Amino acid sequence: MATEREEKPPWDWSSRRSKLLVGTIVSLTSAVTWVAFSQLLQNSFHASTFDAPFTLTYFFLACLLLLFPGYLCVARIAKWESTGDILRECIHIYRGSDEFSWVAFLWKSILFCCVTALTLYTYFRALFKLSAADCTALFSAHHSFVYLMSWIVLFEKFVAMRIFAMIFSITGIVLFAYVDGFGSPAMFGVVMGVAASSGAAVYGV
């Protein structure tokens, strides 16, 4: 009886309360980090003549490689499993229900890399034309694109209220373009921001 209590994890991560707590913390952390990242990046643009969004995309993708070891450490603590089991679970999720094939593995990897690179490039390019607040607001509209694509591609359940939310979100994008005029230089920044939002939605779906 005592042995079972010692082996039991101190916190039930599968409970609704745990998921709500972790989801709230991750959402707030992601939002604050992304806004701070956008603002600091734009300040560096205005403080110098630096204009190399593709180089920024390369370094940003390279830095993402450092996040996976951190994920392994957190998952090992949270799931109470060995590192090998977590790696096998990641590979199983990545390859899907099909049998492992190097061609399919390389195809998925190249596709994910291209979508991520295009999303980051268009977002960085939008920061050259718009303020960080405007770019962040446009990028936050990717949730509407996620629902639209999941409704079309994944055949998610139709919910009227979500359709209204998506319409309001797209209306906000149109108003962003209308404020500065459809023929103004800022229009290019709006297009890049919407492209980045769409790319994030494709990556998510």
TrEMBL record:
InterPro entries xref list: EmrE-like, Solute_c_fam_35_mem_F3/F4
Record key words, sorted: Membrane, Transmembrane, Transmembrane helix
SUPFAM superfamilies from the UniProt entry: Multidrug resistance efflux transporter EmrE
Keyword Transmembrane helix: yes
Spans traversing the lipid bilayer: 20-37, 57-78, 99-124, 136-154, 185-204
Protein name: Solute carrier family 35 member F4-like
Organism taxonomic ancestry: Eukaryota, Metazoa, Spiralia, Lophotrochozoa, Mollusca
